[in-house]
Amino acid sequence: MALDVFHDSGQGAYFVLLVVCGPICTAMIALRFVSTRLSGRRPGLEDWLALAAAAIFLVRVAVAISGNADVDCVTSALTIINGQGLDEALDQEVYEKTSKRILATDLSTLLDQSFAKWSLCALYHRMFGMNRQYALWIYVHAAVQAITYTALVILQLLQCRPLNKFWQWWTPGDCFPLSTVAVAVEPPNSIIDFTLVLLALFMMRDLQIKTEAKWMLRLLCGIGSLAGILGFLKIGLSYNADKGYTGDSRYPIDSIQVHRSVDVASGKGSTMDFRLEQEDEV
Question: Rounded to an integer, what distance in angstroms lies between the CA atom of residue 79 and that of residue 243?
Fold first, then answer.
């Protein structure tokens, strides 16, 4: 079946982002393991967590691209999230198939973001965990992320009552508005993103590396904060009266948000290993 995603600018942008972000994410995670080997250490917990985040993201990219290729009405289905903007003329089989894919995407996005943040926590613990106060804050962040992930998965599964109304609009029941779901989901994720950045900047003061290396890490922290900013942007988009615009804008932003999280998790590990190796040589 013909690929028609470029008939809609939002779907076209999402497709291009997936095609571009997939190889970049693969390269970043490969670079991380190469830098680990060059630094003379074995892959640690933070490396495997980053790999898990990247793997989930890449699987979602593959599914999304193949889904766009064999579903004619992807754009229409994305505008009908949680029963809003319902077009009863839409083919029920297409709606059900696409809506299930959307729900799986939402749940997997929470998971790979969590793995990326746990990877950062594991990296922080390896670098700064000898300081008991730092170690405590790192454990708190990891635990809060685990609690947040569990709560948000439950929220996603309860957003429609019964659950199958999410993919079967003709089923009796109701769903929370998209804006309500966004307000519940995005702030916790964004706040944890920001606090992880601030924690890194605070702990970095004690890191005995060159100023140049510290600025490189600060730059990565700044890029990491972009994921938190995008979370609040999605809240604003969810209140747009045009649900088609909301759907078309949300998924490209999701892709960028997760891509930034995975890249920063990989980039920090690669940069720290490489810079510390240089310091040891000096």
Answer: 5
From CA 57, how far away is CA 262, in angstroms rounded? 9
CA-CA distance, 272 to 199, in Å (whole number)?
A: 16
pLDDT confidence band for 25 (50 / 70 / 90): confident
The larger pLDDT score, comparing residue 191 to residue 212, is at 191
Q: In the chain, count of helices (H) and strands (E)?
A: 8, 2
* Nearest to 193, CA basis, from 139, 234, 232: 232
Mean pLDDT over each residue of the chain, to the nearest integer: 71
For residue 142, name the pLDDT band (cuts at 50, 70, 90): very high
Rounded Cα distance between 189 and 193, Å, is 6
β 160-161/174-175 pair status: antiparallel
